[in-house]
Amino acid sequence: MKKYIVLAALLAAACGGPVRKNVPAYLDPAKPVEERVEDALSRMSPEEKVAMLHAQSKFSSAGVPRLGIPEIWCTDGPHGIRPEVLWDEWDQAGWTNDSCTAFPALSCLAATWDREMASLFGRSIGEEARYREKDVLLGPGVNICRTPLNGRNFEYMGEDPYLAGAMVVPYVQGVQENGVAACVKHFAVNNQETRRTKTNSIVGDRALYEIYLPAFKAAVCEGGAWAIMGSYNLYNGQFNCHNKRLLCDILKGEWGFDGVVISDWGGCRDDDEAVTNGLDMEYGTWTNGLTGAPSDKYNRYHLADPYLQRLRSGAADEATLDDKARRVLRLIFRTGMNQERPFGSFNSPEHYAAARQIAAAGVVLLKNEDGVLPLQVPAGGKLVVVGENAVKKMIVGGGSSSLKTKYEINPLEALQEAFPEAEVVWERGYVGDTSTSYNRVDTGQDLSEARSPEQLVSDAVAAAEGVDAVIFIGGLNKSAHQDNEGTDRLGLGLPYGQPEVIAALSEVCPRLIVVNISGSPVAMPWADSVPAIVQGWYGGSESGRALVDVLSGAVNPSGRLPFTFPLALEDGPLKTERQYPGILPEGEKWWQEYYEEGIFVGYRWYDTHQIPVQFAFGHGLSYTTFEYGEAKVSRKSLSAGGSMTVTVPVTNTGARDGAEVVQLYIAPPSDWVAIPGSLEDPLSRPAKELKGFEKVYLKAGETREVTFTVTPQELSRFDADEHAWVADKGVYRLLAGASSADIRAEAQVEFR
Ligand code: GLC
pTM above the 0.90 mark? Predict the structure, then answer.
C-alpha cells in the first residue's frame, strides 16, 4: 500500500499539483456535497449548529470558524445588489465600491414574456452578487398581483401563476450558476403591504394550489431554488416564517425542498414554532422595526439561546437541529465553499447592456393610433416633455429593493441623447414626490418647486402649443402609498393631479403621447382622448434609454401586460373589507383577510364575468402586425397519461421585424365556466387560463409555427377534497391569442 501512496505523491508532484494528504471530507471539493455535509455535521457541537441558524448581523450568519466553514452573507434584492450596510443597521455603510448595476424591476421582466430575458437577468445579477461576495440573493419575489393596490407589485411578476412560474425558473437558474443562492420570496399568500406583519390570509386550498403556490413550486421543483423566504403574514392562523403546513407539509414534504427557509427580517415570532415548523435561518428579529429591542442582541433570537436551552433541557430534539444545520451546511457547500463557482463581475458593460435590453423588451405599447409612434422629431424641431417622471430618479427608494447605482439615465436625458438636433424642452406639469434619498443613499437631484399647480399646468400647456411633438411622462413613484414596500396605494388613479395635466395637454396637442411609469396597474380614464399610450416600468440604470429605444423606433416594442389594467378598482373581485385589506373581528388578535374570490384573480375574474377592462392581461402592440393561421391539433382526444400538441402558424405581415408573444389559453368545457354568483361553486372554472406562451421574433414577412404541448395537467383544476389535480372529462377549447382578450385561433381537444 505504501508504494501506491508514494507513487500517487510522486505523480501529484510530477503534475505540479499540491499533494493532498488526509484532507477531511468536508474540505475536499472532489467529494459529493452530501458527503461533505455529513462529515462537517459530525464534527460540530450543538452550540456550533445553533449559531449557524440565526443572524449575527443585519445580513450575515455565523459559519464554523474552528472548522474553517465560512459565514453566510445575504443581500437584497431582486433588482440589484444593495449597498453595504453597517453591521447592524439598515442605513448604508458609505462604502465607495458598492454602486451596482440597477436592473429593471421584476414587473418589467415579467412584461417581456421572454424566458431568455429572465435567464439573462438572473445570470447578470448573479454575477454582481458573486463579485460582491454575497452567498444569498434575497429575491426574486413572485407573489401574485391580487390587488392593483399592493405596494410591492413592482417587485413581483404579475397576476398569473403560469407566467410568474415560467419567468422565475430561468432567473433562479441564472443566479445560482454563479454559486449564489436565490431566495424566492415571500412565501406565501403575501399579497399586500397593509398591516403585513399582523394579517392572517384565509385562503381555500383550490386558490392556494392554483394561484398562490405555483410560481414558488416552479422555482423549487424546476428552478432548483436553494432558499425560500417566509413572509411576514399569517396563513390560516400561523405566522408564515414558521408555518407548519406551508413549510413542512407542502414545501419540504410535497415538493421535497432541500434548501433553507429564511425568515423575513423580523418575521420569526415564536420560540417553539421556530424550532418545530420548518424555519432554518432567522434574520432581522429585534432590529427590524417590528420591535424596538436594542440591536446586537443576536443571542436572544428565537433560534439562539432559547433554542439551546430547549436542547439542553431535552425539550427540543437533536434530529430537528441536525436537519436545520444540514440544510445550512448544504447552502454553504453550494455557495461559499463551492470551489467551482465563477468569480462574477460588477458594473460591466455587459450588465448595463443587459439592463437596457431587458427594460426595452418589457416596454408595452398600449395604444398607437395614426402612427403617432415611433416618435418623429425633425432636425431643428421642438419636442416638449412634460411630467416629473421624465426626470425623477426611481432607483432610490421603495423599500428593501432600493439601490445605490453607478448611474440612472432618466427619460429626458435619453430623449436629448436620441434627438440631438431637436430642441427638447421639459416642463414639470405637476409636483409628485420631491424626496431623493433612502437609507442614506441620495440621488443628488433637487426636485423642489416654487410654482403653484395651476401655474405648472399653464406653463406646460403654453410650452406644448404648436410644437412638433409632446410627451407626457408620469405615473407612480417609490414614495409612500405608491410603489413602495410597507404601504399600499390608496386608489387606482394617477396621483398629483396628473389626469388634469393630461386633459389640458390633449386639448392643445392632438398627437399627445402618454407614458405611464409604474409597477402596478393605474386607472386611465383619459385613454380615449390620447392617440398613443406606453407602459414604461422602473427600468433600472438604463431605464430612460430603454424607453426611448422604443419611443424612437430603434427597438420594436414587444412587451405584454403581466396584469390587467381595470377601468375602475370596483370592477375587480375584491368587493369587501373582509377580502381586502382585512378586518379585525371582536376578540381576534390578528387582522383576518378572506380570499373569498378564490381563484378568480385578475383576468380570471374579468373574463369570466365579462367585465370590460382598459387593457387586458397579455396585451401589447408592435410597430408591425402579426397574423395567425389555423390552429392544428395532433389528435382530437386525450386520456390520462397522454399528451398532444397544438400548432399555430404566425406571420409577421408588417414592414419591419418584430416579436409576437403567442399565448395559449385553455377554456374548460362550457358547462363548467363560472357564472355570476357561482363563485362559491367549487367546480366553477375561469373562462380561460394561460397554459403556455412563446415569444417569437419574426422578420418582416416571415412565418413560424408555434407548437404547444398539452397534457391532462394543463386541463386540470385542483380538487381540494381529493387534494389532487383533476382533469374533468369533456371538450376543452385551445385558444391561441395575442392577449387574453384577443384570441386569434382556436382548436379543441376532448378529454376522455
Ligand atoms: C424586508 C423585505 C424583504 C427583504 C428583507 C431584508 O422587510 O420584506 O423582501 O429582503 O426585509 O431587507
Answer: yes
